[in-house]
Amino acid sequence: MLPIRSPRRLAVVAGLAVFALSACGDAAVRSASAAVVGGTSISTDELTGLVERGLSDPQAAQQLGADRDTYQRQVLARLINSEVLDEAARRAGVEVAAGEVDTQIAQFAEQAGGREALEQQAAQSGISPVDLPDFVRDIVTEQELGDALTKDVDVPAEALQAAYDQNIAEYDQVRSRHILVEQEAQAREILASVRADESTFAPLAAEFSIDTSNKDAGGDLGLVGRGAFVPEFEELLFNAEPGTYDVVQTQFGWHVVHVIERITTPL
């Protein structure tokens, strides 16, 4: 679900962090406020509601809820960032229409394998379906604000390269799906089946995969960059040709992997 942002925009939009710090410098925590950004108060009720909805997914509750304080701080940071973006966009004359958010959600859904798969992936990351539009709206706002701020700016080549290198996971991504089983023999048997008939992959994932987070979505893992998976799995993804079906063992078991496509955005 991560957007691909241009290195040029990243190099300049990083300056918003300065604005964020100045906006929150006097953000006193008040009785009914989690934070105050400029003249806007973020209520504790708003923060609590966002946290509770984010932890409503079982996987999110298990992974993020294990350290609720850290997760709550991350959610608060997201709310503060949203207020900072809105104020910066207002000052720059940038307005994001609802239709633009819908279009971006549709693009993310296509990348994820459908709206249901997108919402499932977001929920597992602590973003509930009801909060997804606001989350995507912030992404679109950042993109359009970045475009507005960089329109007439000459960014040095070294700054572009640094931004590109720092965010390489966004510019070199692989779309894949997998079926996770416990035994190598079963993995090899499934591999032979999907190589013989690609249409069997999704049904076999639903029937045999022990990865409950995506088995009902055909084993779809979405479009991701380096660093998202354990080394053995990542090595296969980024060294195999698109269209490859193969097997790899990791600490989780045996994966039957389909490397669907690789998208590399040059500097």
TrEMBL record:
Keyword Signal appears in the UniProt entry: yes
Alphabetized GO MF terms: peptidyl-prolyl cis-trans isomerase activity
Signal peptide limits: 1-27
Keyword Transcription: no
Annotated keywords: Isomerase, Rotamase, Signal
PpiC domain segment(s): 171-261
InterPro entries (UniProt xref): PPIase_dom_sf, PPIase_PpiC, PPIase_PpiC_CS, PrsA_foldase, Trigger_fact/SurA_dom_sf
PANTHER family, alphabetized: PEPTIDYL-PROLYL CIS-TRANS ISOMERASE HP_0175-RELATED (PTHR47245:SF2), PEPTIDYLPROLYL ISOMERASE (PTHR47245)
Protein name: PpiC domain-containing protein
Native organism: uncultured Frankineae bacterium
